[in-house]
Design brief:
about 70 residues
């Protein structure tokens, strides 16, 4: 595992940033849900339950895809 260190302004919520980055990598198929959860520092179940709040579907469909069904 690699470590990346970045400096963030105090106004940036670290958890939200980690969720968004992990979610993006999960959505693109680069990380599994377990790997993304580990990156975000939470359990796999918690990741899967909360990633939708960041606009990412655990099923691979976008909200637009679902609306067009």
């Amino acid at each position: 595992m690699k470590t990346l260190t970045i400096q963030l302004p105090d106004s940036v919520n670290e958890h939200d940033l980690l969720m968004q980055v992990a979610g993006l990598l999960f959505e693109k198929g680069i990380l599994s849900s377990g790997q993304a959860a580990e990156m975000a520092g939470i359990s796999k179940v918690e990741f899967l339950e909360s990633i939708g709040h960041y606009g990412i579907s655990i099923f691979g469909e976008t909200p637009e895809d679902i609306e067009n069904l």
